[in-house]
Structures are given as C-alpha cells and as structure tokens.
What does this fold into?
Amino acid sequence: MSDETKAAVESIAAAFAAWPSEFGAICDRVSAAVRAEAYGDTVESLAREIEAIIARQGSMQEEDLLTLGWSKPALVETLPDALETVRARASRHLS
It folds into this structure.
C-alpha cells in the first residue's frame, strides 16, 4: 500500500472512530431535550390539575392529586415546579 493510500485509509479510519462519539453526543442532546419537554409537559399538566382543584375546593391536599392518579414519586419530582407555575400565574392574574 502506498504512503498516500495508507494516509487516506488512516484519515478515514480516524473519521469513523470520531463519528460514534459525535453521534453519541448528538443523541444525548436530543434525549435531554425530549426529557426536558416531557418534564415541562408533566409540570404543566400538574399545574392545571392544581388550579382546577383549588378553583373547585378552595384549597388542595396531596391526597387530591393522588386520587387523580398522580404517583408520589411524580409529585416529589414535579410538585415544586408545578406550584411555582401556579403561583406565577396567580401573581400575573392579580397584577
């Protein structure tokens, strides 16, 4: 194999060796974006449920959300952000 051919093969091999890591990084970014969007959708859904409960009952307890099918792990993860969303909406509404 000539030096030129050998250099070309090594260059191609290096490009293919780098490709999986670039592909993996792209996949990681896409997965993170999808997870963030799904989390945002979950928070929004929970915030709407909280607003509906408060509008109907005047207050809300964790049991109300459990009755609607929310799991404790989901509430632990998303409730703080959902409550912040509800507070922000209420503040804007009162302004």
In short: The radius of gyration is 25 Å. The mean pLDDT is 85. The helical segments are 3-57, 62-67, 72-94. The first helix runs from residue 3 to 57.
